[in-house]
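Ops channel
N.P.: pipeline sanity check, posting one input/output pair.
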C-alpha cells in the first residue's frame, strides 16, 4: 500500500516544528 507522501511530509513538518 502507498501512503500519501504529501500527508507524511506535512505531518513531519508539524512534528519538526513542535519538537
Amino acid at each position: 500500500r502507498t501512503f500519501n507522501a504529501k500527508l507524511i511530509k506535512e505531518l513531519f513538518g508539524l512534528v519538526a516544528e513542535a519538537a
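N.P.: looks fine end to end. The chain has a mean pLDDT of 90.
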